[in-house]
Structure formats: C-alpha cells, structure tokens
Prior knowledge:
Blueprint: H1 31-51, H2 56-74, H3 81-89, H4 98-112, H5 119-128, H6 140-150, H7 154-168, H8 173-188, H9 222-254, H10 263-272, E1 276-277, H11 287-299, E2 304-305, E3 314-316
Antiparallel strand pairs: 1-3, 2-3
Helix pairs in contact: 1-9, 2-4, 2-9, 2-10, 3-4, 6-7, 6-8, 7-8, 7-9
Amino acid sequence: xxxxxxxxxxxxxxxxxxxxxxxxxxxxxxxxxxxxxxxxxxxxxxxxxxxxxxxxxxxxxxxxxxxxxxxxxxxxxxxxxxxxxxxxxxxxxxxxxxxxxxxxxxxxxxxxxxxxxxxxxxxxxxxxxxxxxxxxxxxxxxxxxxxxxxxxxxxxxxxxxxxxxxxxxxxxxxxxxxxxxxxxxxxxxxxxxxxxxxxxxxxxxxxxxxxxxxxxxxxxxxxxxxxxxxxxxxxxxxxxxxxxxxxxxxxxxxxxxxxxxxxxxxxxxxxxxxxxxxxxxxxxxxxxxxxxxxxxxxxxxxxxxxxxxxxxxxxxx
Length: 317
C-alpha cells in the first residue's frame, strides 16, 4: 500500500466538548453573557483546531456541507445534504454544478484554504453565491484586514463584518457570513477556517424577542445573537468531529491489513473530503478495486455509505 500518501496518525484524539454550563439555552439579552458563552465554546473548538488531526480536512468539508444546506434556505432553495453531494460529486468533469453546487463550492473554498480575502477571491466567491458584483463590495477586503489586525474580539469582529456587508448590500447575507468565518479564523490565528456561522444563519438566536421576525444587522442585540451563533456553531462542529473521529480511529486500526494497490490514495481522499465516489479511479486503483476497497472499509466500520443507493454510491468518514 502507498502509505506515504497517508498522514501519520497520532494517538487517537479525544474530541473536546463544550461544558454543559456553556451551552446556549434560548436567547440571551446581555451581550456579556453571550460573549462569555462564545468564548467558552471557542476555547474548546480551538483545542481541536490546533490539534489538527489527520481527518481535519474531512471534518471541515463536512462543516462546509452543513453550512451550504442552511444557505439553501437563505436563498429559497430546498437542497439537502444528499442533493448537494450529488450536485457536486456526480457531475461530469468540467460541468457547472448549478446554483446549489456553486454555493457549496463557496463553502468548500472557505474550508479548504488559509484565511484571508483578496479582491480576486472576493469577486469569485460573490459569483459562486450568485451575487452581482458592485463597487461597494470591493471595499470589503480592506475592512476584513483592518478588523483582523486591530479589531474587537473574534465574535464581535465577525458580527462587525456581517453587519457591514448587510448594510452595503442587503442581498449579500451569505457573503457576510462567509467573511465572518474568515474573520473568526484570522482573529483566532487558525491555519484554516472552520465553517460555522453560515450554518447558523436561520438559527433561533436571530429571532426578535416579543416583536417577532428576525434580527437584522442594524438591530440592537445583533452582536449578542452572533456570539450565541458562534457558540452554537462551535458546539455543532465539535459534535460533528466526535462522529468522524471513531471511524478515523477504526481506519487507523485496519491500515496494516490493506494490501490493495492504490488504497493509500483513496484513504488520503477520505481523510480530506466529506465524500468520495465509490467509482473512484486513480492511476493505481481501478473502479473495481475501489468498489472492493470501500466495501471492505464499510464492513470494518471505518467509513459509511452516504446515499443508501445501490449504485452511484458515495463514501465518507
């Protein structure tokens, strides 16, 4: 087996958890309490991010998928995780994945590159999110840089950029959350962002108390709501990691038993992405060999088949 392609596995990682006393329960009126909860959750998440387990790529891409599902509701679409996976993985090479697949592509880009935003990246992401480009958006990279360099604490910096984007372009809510996660990563000095906030865009924390409706970026309480969204997003991210880690540990345990030529390439992809097609082919792995490999990994509980279909299967940790 081409084991050189597989990152070294450390002692199996115990995924941190957010203490029960720090879990958000409904809306919180006081910004100080909301900020406290966000800080406690980010502290737990920071431990995992800095540990950087070999399956961190798959974990981040799973978070990107979760965020993309919420983004569908923001733009009035109905695609779920299964539909988004199909839009992405079942297209032919070079095909446009369509509006839903493009939004997933924007989330995957957030999860797959070091934090920071230049004008070219911003223009590209805006296009993936279906936004018409305009001159006011061109000011945002400088604002992100300023907030990252000398801005308020991470959750409030995230709220500040989300508020600025919505003030400039009310139709650009998704871009605001995309940039908010960039700022979280920059302020926390993470090597890679963890997609959190877009997945909370329709959370109950943004409901207005008493008056009904949803908080807008200019409303009192928006910063506190973003802090709660950060806390909820971090908690959800850790639960996602806790689901992936045991399968990764089982994968580690069976590595010595794998003899298939090209198995290392498939395993490296499983560790780095949310899903891998069962029809994977590489220079060293045939479609038949990939099918046998994935079936064996599934039998060992190291991967799961994600579609429930008899054909066009997708596998992931």
